[in-house]
Predict the structure.
Amino acid sequence: MMKGFSRRGDISKCVELFRMMPEKDDVTWTAMISAFVINGGYEEAICWFHKMLRGGVCLTSYTFSSVLRATASLAALVEGLQIHAGVVKTNMAMTCQFRTHW
């Protein structure tokens, strides 16, 4: 459902649905971050990423990929470098999401 609302640009419905969920996991958090990114809400995506971190939710390569896209779109170099350092520290840099094909 969240993906459908996101594709229609209805972020408020995504947020409402997220808040109604009794349990939120890495998939739901990443879906929210991605929804903001897809709809140009880059600052909100980064804010939700920090909420996810504070909540102790497990980060995935999809989470990092989405939030790095937000930092790149904002030209937020320092933030992007800090998040990239998290990618390297968690050894996710070699997953398909982050590899560059030559």
